[in-house]
């Protein structure tokens, strides 16, 4: 599975 | 969350509110680039599609909703409600020269070749140059209302504060996002000339006007 990328910034 | 990130977000919010209030109170969008505002609406729309897929925090979700809502409200005020005051002749920057290369770059250089991720990358690249139509308009007319310069200052300050935030996060969390950092640097550099004029003129009570 493709890595899950988290963008926590606005 | 650190102090730079929070003040950066608040500065961004202040910029957006200043612009909305300026247009609303003066019943006019003279001197404001509608094209830049459309680009910002595209930026927020393509970046915050993750509202539908992931939840980070109440702060995160509410700020995203406010940013998107205000962006569309600003576009509505410029192109519908106060359309008669919109200075289209001076807002002549060709946005396709930004959108097309930025779209190409987002497809080529991204963290992962997935639709949402490419759109996120596109929004990061586009945000870094979205203010260009506004700066172009000011250079064309040779002046800007003081309230417009406050808007631009808050918008530039937000990105500068994010740079400090990334330095902080790199040292204390080992976190860094190369795409966001490079685009953020580009974006901040674009404001440098304006920052100089803001400090040397506007803060000394003079109107921002460029030499002919």
TrEMBL record, chain B:
Membrane topology: Multi-pass membrane protein
Gene Ontology molecular function: any one: ER retention sequence binding
Membrane among keywords: yes
UniProt KW Endoplasmic reticulum keyword: yes
GO cellular component: COPI-coated vesicle membrane; endoplasmic reticulum membrane; Golgi membrane
UniProt-annotated location(s): Cytoplasmic vesicle, COPI-coated vesicle membrane; Endoplasmic reticulum membrane; Golgi apparatus membrane
Protein name: ER lumen protein-retaining receptor
């Amino acid at each position: 599975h493709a890595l899950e990328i988290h963008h926590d910034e606005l | 969350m650190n102090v730079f990130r929070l003040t950066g977000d608040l500065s961004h919010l202040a910029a957006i509110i200043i612009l909305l209030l300026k247009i609303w109170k003066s019943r006019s969008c003279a001197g404001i680039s509608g094209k830049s505002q459309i680009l910002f609406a595209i930026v927020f729309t393509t970046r915050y599609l993750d509202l539908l897929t992931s939840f980070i925090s109440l702060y995160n979700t509410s700020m995203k909703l406010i940013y998107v809502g205000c962006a569309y409200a600003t576009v509505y005020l410029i192109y519908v409600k106060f359309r008669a005051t919109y200075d289209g002749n001076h807002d002549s920057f060709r946005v396709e020269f930004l959108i097309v290369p930025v779209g190409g770059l987002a497809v080529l250089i991204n963290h992962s070749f997935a639709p949402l991720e490419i759109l996120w990358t596109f929004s990061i690249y586009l945000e870094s140059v979205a203010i260009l139509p506004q700066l172009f308009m000011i250079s064309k007319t040779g002046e800007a209302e003081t309230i417009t310069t406050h808007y631009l200052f808050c918008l530039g300050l937000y990105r500068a504060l994010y740079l400090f935030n990334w330095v902080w996060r790199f040292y204390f969390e080992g976190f860094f996002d190369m795409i966001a950092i490079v685009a953020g640097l580009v974006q901040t550099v674009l404001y440098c000339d304006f920052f100089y004029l803001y400090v040397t003129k506007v803060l000394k009570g003079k109107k921002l006007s460029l030499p002919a």
